[in-house]
Amino acid sequence: MRRETDRLPARVLATxxxxxxxxxxxxxxxxxxxxxxxxxxxAISPKTDAGTAFSxxxxxxxxxxxxxxxxxxxxxxxxxxxWAVYAxxxxxxxxxxxxxxxxxxxxxxxxxxxLKAPTVLYIFIFIALRTLRFQARFVVAAGLIAALGWLGLxxxxxxxxxxDMMITRDYxxxxxxxAILIGAEFDKIISILMxxxxxxxxxxxAHGLLVRAVSEGAAAEDLSRFFDAGxxxxxxxxDRPIAAGEGVKRxxxxxxxxxxxxxxxxxxxxxxxxxxxxxxxxxxxxxxIQAHGGTIDKFLGDGIMATFGATAEADRFAADALAAMDAxxxxxxxxxxxxxxxxxxxxxxxxAAGEIVFGAVGDEKRLEYTVxxxxxxxxxxxxxxxxxxxxxxxxxxxxxxxxxxxxxxPPREPEIATTDIPGAEAGVPVAIMHR
Length: 435
Fold this sequence. Notes:
The structure is a single chain. The chain is an alpha+beta fold. It folds into two domains: 4-224, no CATH class; 230-434, Nucleotide cyclase, GGDEF domain (Alpha-Beta Plaits, 2-Layer Sandwich), CATH 3.30.70.1230. 55% of the residues lie in helices and 14% in strands. Strands 1, 2, 3, 4, 5, 6, 7 and 8 form an eight-stranded mixed β-sheet that branches. Helix 1 runs antiparallel to helix 2, helix 2 (57-77) runs antiparallel to helix 3 (82-106) and helix 10 (271-291) packs across helix 11. It is rod-shaped, with a radius of gyration of 36 Å. The two termini are 68 Å apart. One of its GO terms (biological process) is cAMP biosynthetic process. GO terms for molecular function: adenylate cyclase activity. Keywords: Membrane, Transmembrane, Transmembrane helix. It comes from Kaustia mangrovi. Residues 253-383 form the Guanylate cyclase domain.
């Protein structure tokens, strides 16, 4: 049966791998903290043998420190393979078992003495440490190895002195002496296995959520390239699913931009050259529009339609639209210079302002945000009217005067004219922003 991750795209798997590796780095840092704690506790603990008996603890801690420093360097540089993670789990549990086993030597007691050491609780720390990888198999491995390790310690106690196995069935005697109670040790092993199973089950569910979150995050990142940032933010921040037919009325400005003669130019160039020019044209203008607070509504071939104040209320929507148009005209004037990737293209633009309706259209399977209103139609027609007036950029007089009240300062005083726009009302007052 195929695992869930087998069906994921390579970029999603790479993201999950990076997450796992960063988690392993965190695990190694925690392990270093653990060895420092263990070393400190050993250094300050009383030693009844006055330090004369051999103790494996310093050597075990030194070896553990060296192994984890090497593992940390490996995880930071390249990432640990699975076999190295399993090996690290074995080292963790082995260190803990050696520390526990050494207690009876350190305190000059029978081997059964270490079975009552509270250090057994550290087993759960090492098991929980493996949850940081969000992979249940590592938790299961830690739990099983820990259970086997504790079983080995119990077996050592029973077999250390065949003449006196020190086994009792008296609970009081167990608590007040070095005797061992098999049922108590069995309870510890069961507890280790139960905690392991619960954590593994939780991680299995959590890993599924992680995979879906990474997959949806990657999809959202890809899809965000098809939506304007303002629209994407509105979709992400919606309190309930967006439905067709929902809209709001706002005062906004609409900017239309188009390359004059691009259709004829495209007919004389090969397809790759046309698309390269179009991509470069959009790459240069889109950041300018967005930097002035504009939202890209749609691309219409070589045309760009942007709105200001539609996706969210704005106090300077008209001023921002005209400032963006000025910046676009300034950028277009630089095209065609020696070494420039774009030829000298004639760019036309127009701005109209007024009440618009911003909302979702479509059906339950496909939705699109759009703007509707007289200002939208007028801006599009006004942009095309540049050709008739032999101008490059126009704005309705209402939009220009509103922009001035909002703080807009034109690079030069525009010409004011009245013109008849085909398909619109006669005698429309306009401001000629750029000739």
